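Notes from hallway chat w/ T.B., transcribed later so I don't forget. T.B. wanted the structure written out for a chain they're using in a teaching module, and asked if we could keep both sequence and structure tokens in one place. Agreed to drop them here.
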Amino acid sequence: MRVLANDGVSKSGIDALEKEGFEVLTTTVAQDQLVNYINENEISVLLVRSATKVRTDIIDNCSSLKVIGRGGVGMDNIDVAYAREKGLHVINTPAASSGSVAELVFAHLYGSVRFLHDANRNMPLEGDSKFKNLKKAYAGGIELRGKTLGIIGIGRIGQATAKIAIGVGMKVIAYDPFIEEANIPLEFFDGQSLDFNLKTVSKEEVLKTADFITLHVPAQKEYVIGKTEIALMKEGAGIVNAARGGVIDEVALIEALEKGKLGFAGLDVFENEPSPSIKVLMNNKVSLTPHIGAATGEAQDRIGQELADQIIKILK
């Protein structure tokens, strides 16, 4: 049986599949050529990340296809219900990248409270001529320790983010419409562990109380954070989105940053991805990364292995 990893897959995943007799193809096929390629090569398993879309055209016209796999958490680029209705298995890897995304959230937080994103833009341009000016401009940093982190969406990634926050010494509050409380276990290098029980509160309380807010929610039909929600937030608060583009109203966000209502934003995902708004990209209060939340070697290894394990279980 053939597996097409159209957006790539880790060597660990390939090795595990090949050991069980699967042939793994890593050719990147253009979206409009996928149906022909799958049929010509009798592909049984299609693996994607976020770039490739698996819609009804592929589901209806590829009779050899048995499994669709998403290397990651969200499956908004796959018509999941329709595929399952047609008898296909649809799988993903919800736990594999949680730690990597959580660490990126804190990279944005640390970078923003110490102005690293902006300093790295300006030091190459003016570091040799305006060093003292830049030193003064970036002198008002703040510590994360002792501050309150508000987490919107306390699923696997939200909980992984909470672990880091607690370890840093932050207070954590969370809102989730589906979860009333979460157990947050912290395991330390010497074998010790501590459990923290986190009871969720209202979205309004999170918005009003948190010094920083991070989003960990699936794609939505409406904004999770818009003008109304921003108005409730603390003056100078920061916000990070490493979840999905479109959960924050970027027009309202940029306006709030320009007026000083918000102190900074960290964005790994964007409304118009893969062509983010120029206003977002050029704003010096926005810390930017190009959708790399799960892009660590460790996470990709876990994703590949987890996909392979599920495929083998289904088809062998």
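Follow-up for T.B.: Residues 2-93+297-315 form a domain with the Rossmann fold fold (CATH 3.40.50.720). Might be a good example for the class.
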